[in-house]
Design goal:
Blueprint lengths: L1 E6 L4 H10 L14 E3 L5 E6 L4 H6 L5 E5 H7 L4 E5 L5 E8 L10 E5 L2 H10 L4 E5 L6 H4 L5 E6 L3 H5 L2 E10 L1 E5 L1 H6 L1 H16 L1
Parallel strand pairs: 1-3, 1-4, 7-8, 7-9
Antiparallel strand pairs: 2-3, 4-11, 5-11, 6-9, 6-10
The structure holds 1-O-pyrophosphono-5-O-phosphono-alpha-D-ribofuranose.
Length: 206
Amino acid sequence: MLNIALPKGRLADKTLDMMLRAGILSSIEDSGRKLVFENAAGDIRYFLVKPWDVPVYVERGIADVGVAGKDVIDENSPDVYELMDLNIGKCRLAVCAVNGYRDDPSEKIRVATKFVNCAKRYYASIGRDIEVIKLNGSIELAPLLNMSDVIVDLVETGTTLKENNMGVVREITKISARLIANKASYRFKRGEIDLLTKKLGETANA
Ligand code: PRP
């Protein structure tokens, strides 16, 4: 049996829809509060977890494979294989600020973000000192209330920025959902994982 960790929240519908179209799952139960499911053939067990926890389940081998955003992978650097770009959940990680913001290169920049490691890596790459303010959500509030100068955050439609008089200052990287695999599972369940990857690949490119 193949164990699959899937993300709840924003990516859930797109991921489950893709699993259905690829014929990996035959139907989606109306989930309610249930967290673990099996497909009709009984060869796949899947469970829904917080997006940031998918790589944890996969790295520990509780899930053989999982679907995780590139943002979560880059931030946490799990020891897993990244098998495929699923071409869903597309957005970008970007530095954003209130419109009209001017950077003063002589000052440390105060950066509010959920992506502490990505922000540190980006600013190190351009040789800028930063003070990181770690937040867990509604990141856009920080510069609006002058707690930070900028944010490093995900931008999908751009609506949140627009509605708060903010804009993208610099794109750091493009993001999309990836299929990841546990390294030992990939050795011992190679056939099943390759078949799943092939089906998802055909669906992703359809
Ligand atoms: C994400 C992100 C932005 C918003 C971007 O937050 O942090 O706030 O979505 O999307 P948009 O460009 O389509 O407006 P999310 O809604 O996941 O919640 P959070 O603020 O709690 O992180």
